[in-house]
Amino acid sequence: MDNVNKLTAISLAVAAALPMMASADVMITEYVEGSANNKAIELYNSGDTAIDLAGYKLVRYKDGATIASDMVALDGQSIAPKATKVILNSSAVITLAQGVDSYSGSLSFNGGDAVALVKDDAVVDIIGDVPTPTGWGLDVTLKRKLDALVANTVFNAAQWEQLPKDTFSGLGSLETPAEPEVPLFSCSGAKIVPIYQVQGAGESSPYVPEGAFESEAEVTVRGIVTARGESLFKGFYLQEVKGDNSPYTSDGVFVFLGEAVPEAIQPGVEVCVQGKVKEYFGLTQIDIKADKKFEVGAKGEVPVAAPFYVADGETLAQALERYEGMNVALDAGSDLKISRTFSYDYAGRRNNMLVSYKEPLMKSTQLYPALSAEATALVKSNLENQLFIESDYKPADGVIPYFPDFNVETGYIRVGDQLTNLQGVIGYSYGAYRLVATNTITAGDFIRGDDRTDAPSVATKGDLRVASFNVLNFFNDVDGGDTNPSGSNRGALTLEEMVLQRTKIVSAITAMNADIVGLMEIANNGFGEKSAIKNLVDALNEKQTPENAYSFVEITYADKYDGKYFGTDAITVGMLYRGGKVTLAGAAQAIETPEQHASAGSVTRTKDGKTETNPGNDAYQRHSLAQTFKIHDESLTVVVNHLKSKGSGCLEDWANFEESVDPADQQGKCNAFRVSAAKVLGEMLKDVKGDLLIIGDMNAYGMEDPIRVLTDFDASKSDRDIMTASWTTLDGKVFERQGSKIEKGYGLINLNTKAHGAGTYSYSYNGELGNLDHALANASLAKRLVDIEDWHINSVESNLFEYGKKFSGDLAKSENAFSASDHDPVIVALSYPAPVVPPKPEPTPKDDGGALGYLGLVLMSLFGLQRRRR
């Protein structure tokens, strides 16, 4: 049954339950849902005698309700035979024709509300289904057709004619008001202004005065339509056929219509328009919404798309301004690289793709300390180096309109790929330049940068490999798994999704060939038969040889919350190891991290002379897991971490008036709280004997405060203080009432930086790359480094390939390792050579000085040689 039939069935069922009159002369003949308080209902008496309206009232079924609420009682009113009465909202600004009988009252309804005429609580007539669909009757006038002047207790949409919003001229008359004739617009005799002259060579049109948003007078332009805008940009694009041959001025402009584009306006058609030049949030456009002044000419060819390029010394944004409104083509010389694959754009509220010039964007605090001159400059540079790739209509889930061959195996897109052969028009909205595609491309139009590899290059390097892997909420609830402390499921919603997620994780870990694996975002549901970690290890070991089988590290009973869990969060960290390669040395250690608790009213903040006190604040972090291993005769302690996320707020964000915005230092929310955790880790681990490796998702980029605190920070050489969080506790005791200044880092070595420099990454957010996943070592472990690799199987891939189906529609999935998570695994190859055992010296034969003794030596020598040759 389709939705319309379902709704009709429901309406009939509701109507059957309502008291109703057998027949009636009074009926609703017009419904006005206009702007503000402009609400009106027209009633009509089809009978031959006047009707006293005592007992009549108008009611509404608000927002889909099936029980009506009263609006206007009509006691004391009457309606003449074959006449109308208009009921108005008492605050309506509606002028009625002379002689129209009217009455004002508390008439209040909106789109989504059915309205009924009731007498003695029985429905006489109704407009709108009950329950009413969301948005029905919004911003319209509905007038009953003359051949349907019969009251109905069930709404019949076919009996009504829809008129534009705020149409009042027909109230009081059954006749539909005639639409006034609008004379056709003509460009004949008008002065035609070249489009490139309207655009000018600056950021805004020379026709728009400084400080204003529109021209003082209208201009007339003529050009060829290059594209229609039906959704993202409501209008069409005009372009000069020849232009002025200047690279500094655009030959195209957007014409804003504000509604559906007439069918006659198609690419290749010549159109002349007249309207004011407007700068609409950064987009130069000709606005013809009000008067629709356009004239359609002959059809020809669409102007050839201009090759897009960025000139020496200019930013991508400056280049895009030169092409604003034009039809362009991306080629190899455009040098535009994918900086965010096809996924959700929070600003535009749609799926799209982001490209940047020459290389993908890097997060400023991955490369430079927060608020440094270099970091600030990079933030600005990144904002000027973005072009969004769009389709006009919002695409269906799992579909890229301009890339119909998009698929998980051969039609993938990766960050760093160069985009070529795409054509489109350049617009500007939501604070950024956007190319609205007008053609389609194939997989061959992406020039691969760092292409997929079946395994990381370090998988066979070194004597021992340690990996860090955030597994994106691996929960086994749908497979009968135990619950976590919160009882929530953040992971797969079906068994099919969960099996696919597990298969992809197993594929990735198997290819890594790591001997110790730290896990983040695994369900915190214990270590028993129904735990997520046991579920994962069992599936993983099906793909391993017996000597490479994995076990998991389990914390002691004393460290378990409620005798079962590792902390109180829904997710936790875990650790896997190959017993054939390493040996546990003692019990695992749970390292508690600080909590933050500030009761309401305990902290104040002041802005613009106004002082406020804080609401209650409670913030938590996940515990860290430490385990010491023996490799030959060497000791290695591995610590797995997952620090507080950047998205949830802490007390310091409130104190800085940043609880609802991204912090200005670009380090995300709760930065000081993560610094507190780094301080605890540093203190707890500074006296560890042997080698030390701290791994995990630290939720901090390479040069952000928590990483600097754990590595080489020196307050005497810094222009900015690093502070811990206030109001923190540790193990139920006060840790720091006031945040403290960090004077010196704990001296660990960032292995990625040591091997590859600062420009590494394991995560992509909002089109910027950086490392949230780290491997930090003490000096003795750093000497063992053979290599380290962020295996780019996730951060550069589309998240539409992940296990979840909610936003991917019918897009096929794959069991391969790509998009197994949203973080790349980090794999460290280390040198732990087996000890060299010196050979035992063979005893020297006793010389008896005779021939027999000499012969014995010869025989022994020969025997020994033969034995060695075996």
Model description:
The protein is of the alpha+beta class and 870 residues long. The chain is built from 13 helices and 49 strands. A hairpin with a 2-residue loop joins strand 36 (604-607) and strand 37. It is globular.
Which descriptors apply to this entry?
single chain, 870 residues, alpha+beta, Immunoglobulin-like, OB fold (Dihydrolipoamide Acetyltransferase, E2P), 4 domains, seven-stranded mixed beta sheet, globular, disordered C terminus, endonuclease activity, GlyGly_CTERM, exonuclease activity, signal, endonuclease
Q: What is the CATH first-level class name of the largest domain?
A: Alpha Beta
Q: What is the count of β-strands?
A: 49
Strand content: 25-35%
Number of discrete domains: 4
Average pLDDT value? 92
Q: Can you summarize the main beta sheet?
A: 7 strands, mixed
Rg is: 37 Å
Amino-to-carboxy terminus distance: 83 Å
Placed side by side, the strands forming the largest sheet appear as 19-20-26-27-24-22-21
CATH level-3 fold name of the largest domain = Deoxyribonuclease I, Chain A
